[in-house]
Write a sequence for this structure.
């Protein structure tokens, strides 16, 4: 059976890496085969693109930024995500297409419909089975980064930019039932419990769908 694809989204400082790693570890302890990746990044070619995208010394025009993110994602999908899912492994990913809509359309102001179409082209139509949006006030999220020695290019954007990103994320959550909003100001263990419960719930829903037979036929046996 195909693996489940879960993504983590949110503004800077929301805790995506920590929560994604926690889900990865929980699934591994439960005996599941699971792959962790991130965007921009993943396979070596995408990690090289990541270095360019986040370099604070570079001036990157909005359209160039969009295309670089999509190039990184396309390689991640082709080399890591889709092969893992097809092999029956679950995939947990830090950011995916929702991030591009939130940052490049919402934050940068690029035309939204064009950005959405470009995302579909880069992923070959692949979309997450479930997305966890870690929601937090951008000012609080950025405040969590004060201990870092050097903020990357995106983290250095204005508060207004990050507010637009958050608003776009919340708009997406309001129209897409596959996005589960998690209050990122809650204690980490509570967030982790909600995320694991959401992931397992999605697995159960899939199992039910696979068991549901066409009219007049017997139920299918399903293993998770």
């Amino acid at each position: 059976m195909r693996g489940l694809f879960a993504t983590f989204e949110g503004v800077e400082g929301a805790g995506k890496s920590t929560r994604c790693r926690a889900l990865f570890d929980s699934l591994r302890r439960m005996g599941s085969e699971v792959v962790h990746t991130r965007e921009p990044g993943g396979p070596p070619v995408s990690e090289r693109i990541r270095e360019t995208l986040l370099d604070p010394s570079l001036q990157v025009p909005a359209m160039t930024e969009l295309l670089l993110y999509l190039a990184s994602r396309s390689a991640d999908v082709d080399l890591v995500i889709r092969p893992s899912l097809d092999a029956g492994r679950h995939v947990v990913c830090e950011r995916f297409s929702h991030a591009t809509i939130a940052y490049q359309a919402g934050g940068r102001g690029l035309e939204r419909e064009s950005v959405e179409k470009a995302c579909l082209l880069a992923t070959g139509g692949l979309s997450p089975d479930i997305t966890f949006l870690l929601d937090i006030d951008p000012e609080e999220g950025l405040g969590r980064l004060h201990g870092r020695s050097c903020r990357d290019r995106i983290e250095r954007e204005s508060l207004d930019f990050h507010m637009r990103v958050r608003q776009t994320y919340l708009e997406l959550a309001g129209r897409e039932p596959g996005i589960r909003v998690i209050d990122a100001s809650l204690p980490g263990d509570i967030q982790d419990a909600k995320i694991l419960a959401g992931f397992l719930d999605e697995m159960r829903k899939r199992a039910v769908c696979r068991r549901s037979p066409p009219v007049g036929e017997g139920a299918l046996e399903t293993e998770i």
Summary: The CA atoms of residues 46 and 107 lie 22 Å apart.
